[in-house]
Amino acid sequence: MSPRLFSFLLVCAAAAVVVAAFATALAWSDGAPPGATKPAVRPGTIPIAVLGDSNSHSYQDRVAFPLGSHERGGALRDQTFQWTEVLARMRGNELDFGPWVHWGRPWWSAWVRDKVGLLPSRTPIKEDYLYNFANSGGACKNLMGDGLGFRYPQVPRLLSLMKQQPERWQNGVVVIYIGANDWNPYLDLMAREPEAPELHRVIDYCTQQIGRAIEAIHASHPSVRILLAGITNQGDDPALQDKYRDATSPSNIRRALAGANAALRRIAEADPQRIAFFDANAWAVERWGIRGPHGEPDFKSVRLGHLTVTHTMGDAPSNTMLVDDHPGFGWNVLWAQSILARLREAFGLPLTPISDDEAARFVDATAAKP
């Protein structure tokens, strides 16, 4: 075979592979039943979407986390709900997270479809509420798809979905709860040098990406309200309570974190009619407290129904953190209660508060299930 013929056949083979890849991308099923991405509007409900990381990825996802996997939700996952799952169960008649769907495509398939003008679908594939685009491992780069984040962009995919029913989102809400995967790897640096340049670069990047995300949402849907949640102190996480046991490290971490949350708060203060800040760290401190003066664990417990929830790690609902180091059931019920209250307070939304008694009854009834 001549070199010229060989080169020609090689080009033809490469072209065939590219064509096959495009055809596969276009034909790949997104898993959702017909009409699932344009569900009927439920009168009286407020559509709510979520952008974020594993703190907002539903625990009942059997696609990303198959049965037998304890990566999310822990050993008692059937009774361990994440905060969106709590709100959907307690206020699903008022807040509409969309139907529960197995929906999504591999990133390359969604990317190709996006380039040819078709609905690209959610990436990665997961089983979750339709409007929940948070996924485990999500970082600030994944909001708009910056750099390598192009594989799992959340805002462009959400906007593609919202574009199908723009009237639905005239009274909508988007919760942005992201940044922990960018910020928490620097805990040791925070403990030593709370004003380190690296820390400023991280939060500057995240605020830039969050700002871009909000601008993109408001460019298409000007009336959508944005609730921006801050970052909590992972230095007080039960898994790390044997670290930072000195007089300076915990206060240094709190100082660095205060600066990061202040930067996020400023985003909301620039547009208070449409953007509100939820101070997640102040919330955690109020409920669980902080370390003692020498870094020793000195946290509070919270009574919730028949449970006493302590700032400890374990899959039982009496722990704030699961063995997989994600918020436990009790934490998520209290968080959902406070998120709802913040939406009412900030935007005047007609949402029914979750009383302490109602939260306790919900926890007791759920924890009692076999």
TrEMBL record:
Q: Which residues form a coiled coil?
A: none
This protein's UniProt keywords: Hydrolase, Signal
- UniProt-recorded name of the protein: SGNH/GDSL hydrolase family protein
Q: Which organism is it from?
A: Variovorax ureilyticus
Gene Ontology molecular-function annotations: hydrolase activity
| Key word Oxidoreductase present | no
State its Enzyme Commission number(s): 3.1.-.-
Do the record's keywords include Hydrolase?
yes
Any Pfam family hit: Lipase_GDSL
